[in-house]
Amino acid sequence: MIRVFIVDDHPVVIEGIHSLLQNEKDIEWAGHAMNASSCFGYFVNNTADVLLMDISMPGMDGVELCKIMNEKYPGIFILGLSTFNQGLYIKKMMENGASGYILKNSSKEELLKAIHTVNNGGIFFSGEAGEALKEYQKSSTQLPELSPREKEILALIAEGFTNPQIAEKIFLSPFTVDSHRKNLLAKLNVKNTASLIRLAVEKKLI
Amino acid sequence: MIRVFIVDDHPVVIEGIHSLLQNEKDIEWAGHAMNASSCFGYFVNNTADVLLMDISMPGMDGVELCKIMNEKYPGIFILGLSTFNQGLYIKKMMENGASGYILKNSSKEELLKAIHTVNNGGIFFSGEAGEALKEYQKSSTQLPELSPREKEILALIAEGFTNPQIAEKIFLSPFTVDSHRKNLLAKLNVKNTASLIRLAVEKKLI
DNA sequence: GAGAGAATCACCCGAAAGGGGGATTTTAAT
DNA sequence: ATTAAAATCCCCCTTTCGGGTGATTCTCTC
Question: Residue A103 and residue A112: Cα distance in Å, rounded?
């Protein structure tokens, strides 16, 4: 008997998953919470085997909640839930101890398979989510790390400030700002401001 | 008795809304479809009062489906369904005859209110969705129209080409390219290339 | 056929960006 | 203590950008 608990702020999703699971013989509906604190409240006196968790919730982030739950109750398998393929979040969830990730538009069969897989200690990915994760890693790991200063200056360039203006704003020499700017161009391998800003916006660097 | 039909490709959402509505005395569950064609199939021999419709579906777009349903069966009130506040889609749905828009993370009360409102010929918006629509209109309708040439040159600037390079590429005088570039800055009310490209990418002008 | 935009081309000029070349200091990690 | 990386600063030079101010041609609309 697998006890399943769900944390999601969407009543529709809770009801939907409840409905999909209610006739399953080997699954027991442990309950639900609509935010992080009521989730904590439940686990003080109760437990569950698999925890379905929305990644985007008001108040505490699903990623953060995932981390805490995993530290407090390492025996619980966490399955991330989301509507869209968000590679970035998938990666963060996995880094914070999730055992898998499933899209809310999955079929009943996929949902059951996911629950069984993670309950046995396995890792499960919705086909599409797996693709998203791969794409994310491909597109982002090969992106060089920017230093905090570089990110700061990149943001100011994107705001439309010139080197002298940025220098005045953050109390630096215009020469320094120019150096950082040139480093940005070199690191990100772009020719000029136009392609720099385009890359920055598209890769959500700012 | 309000007959409610739902078109959505997410089983979870269908189940969830069904579950939320099943004990309502004045609401009758007409059925559901998971794509546009099975929706058409249903309405050949049946009808409904309120049609809940996801905006993003595989195959035919919700916006497109909304338009067709509204033309074929003008007596049916359509209520758009989406997970996120997508001002652009909200606007398109309304232009295509929807009577309102509700977020999937709405409460049961809000959902019922929405159904009743549109069934009486009214217009309903989730509080957040209304905000999103306003924001969208504010941010997008005041965006000046760009001529085809300007769009072309904007795209090339975003690719990282300089005026002389663009001139050579599309067989124009560098002066002309420069004129277009200056017009872009003026029309979009930005100071320099950095803010131009940022705006262009964020507003999906390229 | 008058007028409005779009598209084209032209010049002046100062400011900013970008390609080099250096340098020192601070900070973090080993 | 050593090393690496980040952060700071400086100057050379050429190209590009951006502001201002013009112009002509074409096309479409009213």
Answer: 13
